[in-house]
Amino acid sequence: MSFINYYQKEKILRRIFLTLMFLFLVINSFPIFWMGFCSIKNNNDILSGNVGFSKARTDVIGMEVDEDSIYVFSQDGAISEYDLKTKEAIGRVKVRGRDVNYYFGNENIYLVNSTKGIFKINRENLKIEAKTPNPITGVDTNRFGNTSVVAYDDVVIFSVELRGMHKLFIYDNETLELKRTVRLPMDSDGLIKSLYVNDDSLFVGTNKDIIALDKKTFIEKNKIYLGDNYYAAGVQQIERIVGNEMILLVNNGVYFIDIAAGAVIAKKDYGINLFEDIMIKGANLYIVSPLGVKVVNMFTEEEILNNDTLVRELADGVKVNLKSDYTSSEATRIATNGYEYYIGSSYGRVSFLKDIAAKPYDSIQLPLGHRLIMFQNYADLWKNIDFGLYLKNSLIISGFTMLFAMILATLASYSLVRFSFPGNKFFGVSILATQMIPQIMYLIPIFIMFKWVNDVTGISVKGTHAGLVFIYTAFFVPFSIWILRSFFASIPVELEESARVDGCNALQVFLKITLPLAVPGIVATGIYIFLMAWDELMFAWVLTEGTTLTIPIGIRLFVGNYQNRYDLMMAAATVATMPVLILFFLLQKHIVKGLTAGAVKG
Amino acid sequence: MKKLLTFLMVLTFLVSVSVMTTGCGSSEQVGGPTVLTMWVMPNSLEPINDLVDILEDFHKNNPDIKVEITSLDWGSAWQRITIATMSGEGPDLMQLGTTWVGAVTSMGALYDMTDRVGEIGGAEHFLPSSWRYSGIDGTDRVTSIPWFVDARAMYYRTDVFNKLGLTKNDLSTWESFEKTLAKIKASNLEIDGQKVQPLGITGKNDWNVVHNLAPWIWMAGGDFLTEDNKRCDLYSEEAAEGVSFLVSLVMKGYVPESCLEQNTSQVENGFNNGEYAIIFTGSNELRALTTSEEQGGAANTYVAKRFDLAPYPEGPNGRVTFVGGSNLAIFKNSKKKDASWEVIKYLTAKKAQVEYSKRSGFMPSAVEAFDDPYFTQDKRRSVYREAVKYGRAYPCIPQWAQIEQPLNRRFGIMWEYVLNNKDQFSYDVIYNDVLKKAATEVDKVLLMNR
Amino acid sequence: MEAQVTRTKLQSIKYYYSKYKIAYYFILPTAIAMLLMHFIPIVQGFYMSLLRLNNFTLNQYLGAPFVGFGNFYDVMINPASPMRIGIYDAIRNTVIYSFLVTIGQTAVGMIVALMMNYDFKGRGLVRTLFMFSWIVPTYVTGILWGFMFQQSIGIVNIILVDWLHLLSSKPFWLVGMNTIWAIIIPTIWRFWPFSMLMLLAGLQNVPQSLYDAAKIDGASKWKTFWKITWPMMSPVWMILVLFGMIYNTYSFNIVIMMFGNGAGFPGRWGDLMMTNIFRNSFMRWDFGAGAATSVLLLIVMVILVNFWYKHYKKTEEIF
Does B445 reach chain C within 8 Å, measured CB to CB? Predict the structure, then answer.
């Protein structure tokens, strides 16, 4: 009986033991897991303490009305088609991306975003027929701004708001192949904000002016300077009123311009602080602002309606997981089919109104957006700061240190172990003694020494890779010698002696007999050296310059005075761990042997 | 065999050395444009590109000069400038924080520009509070030229104020400011699921520890050093009043505790995300809130459409605006001083001043730049334009950077007290413990370096 | 007679030399590196500690005014010296830190090594996975834990307070007294696998016969451990103690990266000797005092190592 109990007890104990072990493993690995997890999160999620991934916003960025259906375009890249009568969803297509925009053509819808490019979508069945990749690469995706697209005749024209990008990309409208690019005459800090096309010309709205181009040849016809727009919104929307008169929506006001005369007729803001959208119906101008809808007669300036209670109505029952006192759900777009009005707002809601002054009689709510998992961060971190340079520098410096220190340590260690020459003990002890000295004592003197070398020989050492490699080699050799000692000691002297007897001299014995046997130990030591050099911070802080900065210095630029990109910093930290991780995995047996051999032999 | 081996080893060694040394370090081109090296800190989103854009005209007009720009982060810039001074090897032009000018000048590292100042209009061309940093107080040697100014002001949420029936006037004096904070706290507002806290100020983990307290100390009538800059004047009732006013705001719960762990950058982010109703910070925040997210700003946020600026509330001793900034200096060992001076001339002229202000968000140091419509026509920027008139800055002495260390530490400890020993904290503690010790420690530094 | 003696002496010197010629060649590069990069700088460093070397006198370098032991006096004793500000905090923190970290990493390493000693499926894999935390570079550790320890948005507090409800409110880790834990925990996390490996190897060298004998005698597991296992492994953990002592007293990377983005001052309970010296040398530009503090630290370390060595020799004798 007791026999059985014993085994049972053992089994239970074993199970507890394994569970504890597993639990501990999980806790221990948690920080590394967390680092990787945060590296693919959206930065806002990290900054607001969101543990999971938040969902993309589904703000309405446009509505287009057909005979019996309405197409709703939302910020997460979705096009949803709803039946106007039944308010049921008819179709939906989605292209995930940022900075979404679209052009509603007669047969096709061209949907663009800043990371993936242009998608040609059939209006009838909402299927993607063609796509073209984004022509702009090599930029931190957070730097991209508004995209714009227009299509006419046989071309599709694409632009993106990006610093220094003053080009229009012209594509074939069926195959979406790039036909040509057109360079626009803009200032160095000019940004392309919007595009518009009518029968006569192609218009480009920038942050300072509006340019009219010939539709075929893209030669500049006219340009009107709007004054420095200090709110950086630039020309958001261009509409034609009648004849040569056009109206421009610029973040904090509307401009009436005469394009033929090339002059600004008037600038008005109708007492509104912030304009989201405008719509022209007859002589009336409908203005959507966060507070509601205002209707004015453009010619008489008579105010027809000021419905600023609208925003409250929209806010009621908005299906978002927020408990709000005063919500930011704002009206963003307006459209009409002539009979009723549609108001799109943030968080994916479209409200239907019979009369612009009335309350909405119905509404539809778009499906929630996708979860924001940003693998993009791993591409962006190279472009945000010059991380590639830092990685390269760290690799070069650690690699060369490993090489040199291995050579020096192998030679010295062998010598210490095999030859009892006078001064052996002194040398051995002084090697160990150097480990006791705080490294900071070396900083200034070494620096002065570099300066002296520079003065005397003219070779510049400070701020070069070589300087740092010299220092690191000198610092890591003592420890390496200590580790290698036991490896060499474990190689039987008899082998060497028999080789001696055979007539080899000391060097040949070393090269032919000892070295091959000591390779595992040397490899292990080499990896340690690499690990230590990879890790070193103090000297790199002080003695590196612009082109030789290493990772520990560079990685601090992600979070500092000018940006708070924790997501990129975690991604960079993961990347910084990769080389040592790979090395470790490949050679773990050697490392373990190296450590343990050193310990046991003492 | 041995000889071959040694030869190979030596060869590898030499090859690798040469690869490493020639791979880096700048090489001088003989004959060709004069190449200037310039060190700047990240003052704008793309520190190097922005400056290159601004220097485009300069390069056009001076084809024989080329400026190469390197960006250092503020954390390591201090050490690098030290090393540069010691080694004699440094850039031709460098940007110095105003509080560093005294120290670096005393190291004998800067070129004396007193005789040339007339070419750019002399002292009158610049704001008085920033001209103070052109050289050490008490001497009239000019070793650095003011480049831009970091002025602080108050940012507040118009939607919160509208909802509670408050106006800008309610921020005009210390008393009304405190009442406003109380009102905001009492209303327990929650907007967009985000609870709105009245005020956001940072605690010890910030580079602005002393800068945050300075305007309150000055407004109460206190000062850091005595008139002759020889002794520390912090152990005074006025200074205690200033400090305790700010601390009392925290004690009364107007500042959430988590805020005290953060730095200025995080608090600014918090404001942009709707966490605070009021913060005090520099003009770079205005730039951030009016620049689209794509360009690194926060103009697409909810808050960006609902904020306004006001100067610091007026205290017992009047109105004060904290003013800092950066200057440009020429390295003494530079071999291209004349070319460097040309660059300084260009960067302190009105056009470049306004342009750089647009990119960085900091205020210009040249007085005439403020007449540009960029400042006069904008409601918010004109707040700064007015604020710099009351600007006040630290004295420019060589030991200032060293003085900031014990002050940072002492005030950092004070914030820690506030967090951990709330009940025991009082005016008395500030006066007799914090300020007294701070004054003693600063005196030690001053005496040491006599 | 005389000539003969001299000749044999000469001969013997030549014999020594030629026999060991290769040995000298082998240690030559290392010796040069040590001379250049260790010996000369240390001597200069010692000399620097006797000078008043600050931003005013920097250009003169070794020609700066000689103040003898003035720097040492200022650092430790002089109440009027700015150098002394915060040094006792740093000393106290460093002592507590090294002590707790060394004990912590050895204890955790020992426990896990004992667990690893049992054979179970996937043992090799688990051992490799445990080593992960040792691979992570120290500056990444500093950044990562600094990020995790944030009071309101850091995951540590979220787990402790929101999920597990172990604490009622979110404590501050990066501010106040908890800073010392904020630097101890990541250091133990990063270094314990090293201890585990060494201890594991040591464990495997304890002869099974001893264990069998103990079992026959009816000793409990606890007693077995303390009376047999632990003493048998003393060479190993003596070395761990040495490493721990030296490495942790000079610890710099983790602290500077955790707090580096703020004012650079880790707080009264987070400041260590090395960050203190670094700050005083490079932020206050008082290199002479910085060197003096380093020299004092070195002296203390030498004394400690001396004690350790005597103890180590005693344990060596047993074996």
Answer: yes
Which of A326, A450, A547 is nearest residue B191 as measured by Cβ atoms? A326
Give contacts of B85 with chain C, Cβ < 8 Å.
Answer: 58-59
Tell which of B81, B294, B380 to mutate to test the A interface (max A CBs under 10 Å): B294
Residues of B in contact with A464 (CB under 8 A): 20-21, 23-25
- Determine how many CB atoms are found less than 10 A away from the CB of residue A77: 26
Residue A246 makes CB contacts below 8 A (sequence gap 6+) with A203, A238, A239, A240, A256, A257, A258, A259
Chain B CB within 8 Å of residue A273 CB = yes
Q: Which two tokens stand for residue C53?
A: 């070397």
Q: What is the pLDDT of residue B29?
A: 47
Residues 144-173 of B with CB under 8 A from A: 159, 163
In this complex, the residue of C61, C174, C282 whose CB is nearest that of residue B205 is C174
* Rounded Cα distance, B416 and C177, in Å: 9
Query: Residues C267-290: what's their mean pLDDT?
Result: 81
Interface of B with C in 89-108 (CB under 8 A): 103, 106-108
Look at B20 and A469 and tell me if their CB atoms are within 8 Å.
yes
Q: What is the side-by-side order of every strand in the sheet holding A60-65? A: A60-65, A69-74, A78-83, A89-94
CA dist B171 and B279 (Å) reads: 12
Q: Would you state the structure tokens that stand for residue C269, as one six-digit string?
A: 């309970």
C-alpha torsion angle, residues A432, A433, A437, A439 (rounded to 10): -40
User: Collapsing DSSP states into helix, strand and coil, what is residue A318?
Assistant: coil
Instruction: Using a CB–CB cutoff of 8 Å, tell me whether A503 touches chain C.
Output: no
Cα atoms found within 13 Å of the Cα of residue C167, Cβ hemisphere only: 11
Whether pTM exceeds 0.90 = no
The residue whose two tokens read 């602290």 is C255
Query: Rounded to whole angstroms, how far apart are CA atoms A170 and A467?
Result: 51
Distance linking the first and last C-alpha atoms of chain B: 66
Using the CB atoms, write b or e for C39-57: b if 16+ within 10 Å: eebbebbbebbbbbbbbbb
| Amino acid code (one letter) for A38 | C
| 0.95 surpassed by complex ipTM | no
User: Across residues C294-301, what is the average pLDDT?
Assistant: 90
SS3 content of chain A, % helix, strand, coil (to 5): 40, 30, 35
User: At which residue do the structure tokens 């400042």 appear?
Assistant: B375
CA dihedral C33, C34, C35, C37 (to 10 degrees): 80
The torsion region of residue A137 among left (phi > 0), alpha (psi -120 to 50) and beta comes to beta
Residue A432 to residue A427: CA distance in whole angstroms: 9
Instruction: Determine the Cα–Cα distance for residues A77 and A98; give it in Å rounded to an integer.
Output: 8
Rounded Cα distance between B211 and B111, Å, is: 28
Q: What is the pLDDT of residues A484-537, one digit of tens each?
A: 887 887 788 788 778 777 777 777 777 888 888 888 888 888 888 998 899 898
Instruction: Give yes or no for a contact between B348 and B169, defined as CB atoms under 8 angstroms apart.
Output: no
Using an 8 Å CB-CB cutoff, list chain B residues near C58.
Answer: 82, 85-86, 107
- The CA distance from A21 to A414, in Å, is 41
Q: Which residues contact C200 (CB under 8 A, 6 or more apart)?
A: A596, C113, C116, C117, C127
Residue type for position B263: N
